[in-house]
Amino acid sequence: MDEQTRIEAEAAAFRGLVKHLQARTDVQNIDLMNLAGFCRNCLSKWYRAEAELRGASISDAEAREHVYGMPYADYKQQYQTPATEEQKAQFTAGEDGHADTRAGN
What we know:
Elements: H1 3-23, H2 29-36, H3 40-53, H4 60-68, H5 72-79, H6 85-93
Helix pairs in contact: 2-6, 3-4
């Protein structure tokens, strides 16, 4: 695969992941973190960091809106449920496996 095709395929896969996560509002971020080590917030941080590496200025709020498909506060109000004690404990226990959201990682 040539470099341009690879870049386009990766970008399309990212858009597909974002679209899927926007549709799956029933899946809580804490569950994503506990199962996969990343969540929508991680994805928005990766997006923002990589945009900034390329000279684009984007705020956390703008990056989150891109990933969530709406302002983060609206998403939280409409779809986020309080984490259970079990979810919180699992989150803390699995912190070593959580995603590195710094640029270039």
